[in-house]
Write a structure and sequence with these properties.
Order of helices and strands: EEHHHHHHEEHHEHH
Strand order of the largest sheet: 3-4-5
Strand content: 5-15%
Radius of gyration: 25 Å
Helix content: 40-55%
Largest sheet: 3 strands, antiparallel
Number of strands: 5
Organism: Lacticaseibacillus pabuli
Shape: extended
Structural class: mainly alpha
Bound molecules: zinc ion
Distance between the termini: 70 Å
Protein name: HNHc nuclease
Oligomer: single chain
C-alpha cells in the first residue's frame, strides 16, 4: 500500500506527512495484522531520468533483445519484472521515473548482462556510466575491458618467461582483463602508450578479490607471508 503526500514538518525524529488522500482505516488495520503498521518514507529529489540515462538503458536492452530473440519491448518488461522482484520497486516508466530509480535500474541491467554473459557491442560498453565498477565486473566475468570479447587476466608488470605462474604472489601485481588482440597491442606498443591511448589503468586487488578470482588461494597467500617473515628472521 502506498500513501502519497508532502512532508509538513520535521521535529527531531518525528516527521509529519500531509497525505494527498485520506487512507482507508480498515485497509490499514488489515495490512497491520493487529500490530503497529510500519512504513518507509521515500523522499523524492525531484529530478527525473535524463535523456542520456534513457538512451544508455535502451542501448543495453536492445543488445539483450538481439541476443535473446525477444523484442526490445518484451526484453524491457522482463528486465523490469526481475528488477521489481529483486528490489521491491514499484512499476515505473522509463519516460518519467525518478533519477534515483533510473540509476538503480541501469545498474541492475548492466549487472544482469554480466551475470548472464550477454555479449556486448563496443558502443554499449562505452556507454556504461563512468561511476559503474566496470573493471571489477570485467575481471570477474573475464571480459575485455576495451572491446567486450572474452579475456584473460593480464598482469602488470607482465610475468616474465620462466616464472612458475602457479607460484606467484599476485598481491604484488596490478591487473586488467584483456582479449588476445588487446593483449598483443599492449605488448607491441608498451604499457605507457596503452594506458594513455585507451584511458585505462590496471588495478590493484585486495586479498579477498584475488582469492575470489582464483588468482591465489588463501593457503598460498598465507604461505607467501610465512616465507617472507622467515626470510626476515634469517
Ligand atoms: Zn579486447
Amino acid at each position: 500500500m502506498r500513501l502519497d503526500g508532502h512532508i509538513e514538518s520535521v521535529s527531531g525524529d518525528k516527521v509529519t506527512v500531509q497525505l494527498d488522500q485520506t487512507p482507508d482505516p480498515l485497509r490499514l488495520r488489515q495490512l497491520a495484522h493487529g500490530k503497529q503498521p510500519s512504513v518507509s518514507v521515500d523522499v523524492e529529489d525531484g529530478r527525473h531520468i535524463s535523456p542520456d540515462q534513457r538512451k544508455k538503458t535502451w542501448a543495453m536492452i536492445r543488445d539483450y533483445a538481439d541476443y535473446t530473440g525477444y523484442s526490445p519491448i518484451e526484453m524491457e518488461q522482463w528486465l523490469k519484472a526481475y528488477f521489481m522482484a529483486d528490489t521491491g520497486a514499484e512499476y515505473f516508466s522509463l519516460s518519467d521515473t525518478s533519477m534515483e530509480n533510473a540509476v538503480a535500474f541501469l545498474t541492475y541491467v548492466i549487472d544482469f548482462g554480466f551475470a548472464h554473459a550477454i555479449p556486448w557491442r563496443t558502443q554499449t560498453l562505452d556507454a556504461i556510466p563512468s561511476d559503474y565498477p566496470l573493471m571489477m565486473q570485467c575481471l570477474k566475468h573475464r571480459i575485455c575491458i576495451i572491446c567486450g570479447k572474452r579475456a584473460e587476466i593480464d598482469h602488470e608488470p607482465p610475468i616474465g618467461r620462466g616464472y612458475d605462474r602457479e607460484h606467484i604472489d599476485n598481491r604484488r601485481f596490478k591487473f586488467f582483463p584483456l582479449c588476445h588482440a588487446h593483449h598483443m597491442v599492449r605488448h607491441t606498443k608498451g604499457i605507457e602508450w596503452f594506458m594513455s591511448f585507451y584511458h585505462i589503468k590496471p588495478v590493484k586487488l585486495d586479498d579477498d578479490t584475488i582469492i575470489s578470482l582464483k588468482l591465489n588461494s588463501r593457503k598460498q597467500l598465507n604461505e607467501f607471508d610465512k616465507e617472507a617473515s622467515d626470510e626476515q628472521t634469517h
